[in-house]
Structure formats: C-alpha cells, structure tokens
Specification:
Distance between the termini: 85 Å
Largest sheet: 4 strands, antiparallel
Radius of gyration: 31 Å
Low-confidence stretches: 1-35, 87-95
Helix content: 10-25%
Mean pLDDT: 79
Number of helices: 5
Order of helices and strands: HHHHHEEEEEEEE
Strand content: over 45%
Number of strands: 8
Structural class: alpha+beta
Length: about 220
C-alpha cells in the first residue's frame, strides 16, 4: 500500500490530514448554521415611576408582615426596591443612608416647597428610619400642612423567599400657618432586612382642595 502511495506521490501524512479534514465544518457551514440560529431575548417591561409606585402599593397591601411573596412579586421587589425611585439600602452595608431632596408642587391656588433628608439605618437586627425636612408655602394660604415619612422593609422569608417584615408611617402636622419643620424617626427590630423602600411626603390642605408633594 505504501509503495502504491509513493508511486502516486501521496505521503502518509497527507493522507492522515485528509481524513481529519473531513471532520471539520467549513467556515461557510458555520456561518450558515449561525445565521439560522434564532436568539430569543426576554425583555422586562419598562415601567413608569407611577406604575412602579402603584405596584409597590399593591404588593404592600396584598401581604401582611412575614408572609412570603409570590415569585413575581419577589422579583419585582428585588428589582425596584433598589432603584433610584425609592433609594437603596442593603443589609450588607450596615450603615446609615441619607438622601437629600428639594421638591416643589402646588394646587388649588397654593404652591409649596419641601426640602430636607430621608434616611434609614439598617443593622443586623436593630434598624431605624426617619426624615427631617421643612415644608414652606410660597403662595396662597394653607389650612393644614402634614409632613410624613414612610418605610417598608423586605427580608428573607421561608426558604429563599422575600416578604414584608416591617412597615410604618410617621407624621407631623400644623394648622393655619405656612411653614412646618419636622424631625421624624423611629427604631424597629426585624431579621434579615435585605431591601427597603422609603419616601417623605407633605400634604397641604387649602380652602379649595388638597395636594401632595413626595420624594418618590
């Protein structure tokens, strides 16, 4: 056999390489296969700020404390409790997180501005939250001003699940004046807090109606 190959001018190395080449797809074949492969990309729906707030309110009302959320609701909390809409506070930081705000609004012939800080301090078991801010009426006359701060804390529930472990609202109010400064804070105990959503809000009541300004 070797003598025959020598006569034909084909070496045994060339023969071996020839056999190997049959096991390799040509570049054209790869390109064709790649072009026929469809990549399916699953995109999360883009929600507006109002839709995010509305969904959080629905979730918070749906479950009592220490009840595991459905997978869909848990995924939503994991995604949006850390968003810039609500601020971020993870237990791993174990530190106080403050967020400054300066917002204006109005209605019913009154305009107002609120500015200050909303904060939370997440520890291992003992936590606290609050806000210190002022509301000033820039035009018109307020019958009542109410400043408030709200927090909802989410933590580990069940086997790898997430649930609401604490929620509360603190408020302060004054009547027949155009300025209110409030320093609101409270401590609480909860295990394995992983995420929090918090916001400050002012509600202004006037002769012709009511409006709110909030940090969310």
């Amino acid at each position: 056999m070797r003598n025959v190959l020598r006569k034909l001018g084909v070496s045994s190395l060339a023969l071996t390489l020839g056999f190997v080449s049959f096991g390799v797809l040509s570049p054209n074949a790869n390109a064709e296969e790649t072009s026929n492969t469809k990549v399916v990309e699953v995109k999360q729906p883009t929600l507006t700020k109002d839709q995010i707030i509305e969904r959080f309110e629905e979730i918070n009302l749906k479950y009592p404390n220490n009840v595991e959320f459905s997978k869909e609701d848990a995924d939503f909390v994991r995604t949006y409790a850390k968003s810039t809409v609500f601020g971020e506070s993870e237990s791993s930081t174990l530190a106080r997180k403050s967020e400054y705000f300066n917002k204006g609004g109005g209605g019913s012939g009154i305009s107002a501005t609120m500015n200050g800080y909303v904060w939370d301090d997440i520890g291992v078991v003992n936590h606290s939250f609050g806000a210190y801010f002022s509301t000033r009426i820039n035009s018109g006359q307020a019958n009542k001003i109410t400043n408030s701060v709200t927090i909802t804390s989410y933590g580990a529930i069940g086997k790898g699940g997430i649930g609401k472990v604490y929620s509360n609202t603190l408020s302060d109010s004054i009547s027949n004046t155009n300025y209110l400064y409030s320093d609101l804070s409270e401590g609480y105990t909860a295990y394995a807090v992983a995420y929090t959503s918090k916001y400050a809000k002012t509600t202004v009541n006037g002769q012709y109606g009511t409006f709110t300004i909030a940090t969310y």
